[in-house]
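Our preliminary data section would be incomplete without showing what the modeling component actually yields. Below, a chain of 235 amino acids is followed by its predicted structure, encoded as tokens that our downstream tools consume directly.
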Amino acid sequence: MRITLNSIFLLVMSLCISSCGMNENPNQNMEAKTIMEVTTFNIISTINPMAFANRDAQIENDFTSKQPGFIKRQSGVDEKGNYVVIVYWKSVANADASMNKFMGDASVADYAKMIDGPTMKMSRYAMDKPFNAETSRFVEIMSFDVKPDTDMVKFDVLNQKVETDFTGKRKGFLQRLTGINEAGKQVVAVYWASKETSDAALQPFMEAPISKEFMQEMNQATVAMGRYKILNYSN
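Predicted structure:
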């Protein structure tokens, strides 16, 4: 099947609409906070990973970083070769404008054709604080829905206690960001100095009482976890 720029655009837009659809909950204000845009995908099997990394770096330097409202862009890959691109924006409007411009720009069509369109998933979240983990080389991203009967005030307190009581005390920890989209899905992004420090914290996290209490509030069927080595384009 031939993947065109238009087919990528339609797929991304449909995913964005489904994951960022409007919700009547007045406590969820996507416009008031930093937006984290997370896109996961595989590349076409015939594409050389180094060629993709080189083109991805060009997209970051020549296009995305020059868009209004841009804060930070990161690309990463996991041990199975699955990719993530994380972009922080000042607003949803900035993210929308960048996407619309990207999809209409013929100069980036070759990049879109490197991506296996059916594997692409995108979500946007309003985050609790700005990104500041500039030296990170590894990121964990976990998204999930909470159980329907969850007390969200208590959950938010518990969510922050995971950092103060456990994650923030681990060697190599740099930053933990939490967020929510307009459909109510939660996200946690944890930045580490290296994969090794993330690996060392993983099993102790699963065994910690505060972590078990936290995970009990999740709808386990909706939990998605990705662990990515950040591709270092700047150094």
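Helices lie at 5-19, 49-62, 92-103, 109-112, 152-165, 195-207, 209-215. The chain is about 35% helix and 25% strand. Preliminary results of this kind motivate Aim 1 of the renewal.
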